[in-house]
């Protein structure tokens, strides 16, 4: 098992309820690897910022990050560290 600790940074450029529901659905689906999350609305730029701390198998983290990145109006960057 290749477990990693990391942070997934999500920028949501749309406030549409469909986009938010899909993001929340994915985060719920992968809740077993999520340590915590912080969401910050930023009305000045009409977007939201979400940071998600993850701890789990690298393929699960990559799957979550990839699915989030496939959503429209969403930008995702993931940073991982190998932790023993």
Automatic annotation (TrEMBL):
- Under what name is this protein listed? Nickel responsive regulator
Which species expresses this protein natively?
Aedoeadaptatus ivorii
Extract the Gene3D superfamilies matched here: ACT-like. Chain A, domain 2 (3.30.70.1150)
Q: Name one Pfam family in it.
A: TM1266-like
SUPFAM superfamilies, A to Z: ACT-like
């Amino acid at each position: 098992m290749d477990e990693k600790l990391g942070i997934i940074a999500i920028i949501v450029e749309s406030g549409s309820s469909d986009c938010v529901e899909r993001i929340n659905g994915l985060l719920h689906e992968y809740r077993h690897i999520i340590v915590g999350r912080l969401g910050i609305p930023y009305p000045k730029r009409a977007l939201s910022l979400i940071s998600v701390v993850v701890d789990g198998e690298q393929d699960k983290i990559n799957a979550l990050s990839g699915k989030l990145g496939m959503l429209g109006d969403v930008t995702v960057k993931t940073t991982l560290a190998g932790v023993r």
